[in-house]
Design goal:
Strand order of the largest sheet: 1-2-3-4-6-5
Strand content: 35-45%
Number of strands: 6
Radius of gyration: 14 Å
Distance between the termini: 30 Å
Order of helices and strands: HEEEHEHEE
Shape: globular
Largest sheet: 6 strands, mixed
Number of helices: 3
Length: about 130
């Protein structure tokens, strides 16, 4: 998904390792609405990054698909989301979908980074 990679790397200014999973959400006309990027699992943990072209792309259907992929298909036991401390919109979204604030990493060149986590058993998007 070349357009997904371009959007995420542009908005987040990150690059991702081999084995990364890209899940795209598209508008009815085929344009990219948003993307979830899931890094390969390490010791039961996947890292989640999201980027969007629209404030309304992160739908309940997309959440169900994304979390099912992480917790059921990949087999993660937990998911970590790193969010810039000044990104209040993304923090609200993380809390809304069920992530819990776990800590703060201080002193990056862009500011502090907040760490959010969700355990498989806490996920309301996956049928148990």
């Amino acid at each position: 998904l070349p357009d997904s990679r371009v959007l995420v790397e542009k908005l987040l200014q990150l690059s991702f390792p081999r084995g990364t999973t890209w899940i795209a959400s598209r508008f009815d006309d085929g344009r990219l609405a948003g993307v979830a990027v899931i890094t390969p699992m390490v010791k039961g943990n996947c890292n989640l990054h999201i980027a969007g072209n629209s404030p309304r792309w992160f739908t309940p259907e997309f959440c169900k698909s994304m979390f099912t992929h992480m917790f059921v298909i990949i087999g993660c036991q937990r998911v970590t989301a790193s969010i810039a401390a000044d990104n209040e919109l993304c923090q609200r979204l993380a809390k809304h979908v069920g992530f819990q604030l776990e800590g703060r990493l201080r002193g990056f060149d862009f500011g502090d980074l907040l760490m959010y986590g969700m355990l498989k058993g806490e996920c309301k998007w996956v049928d148990s």
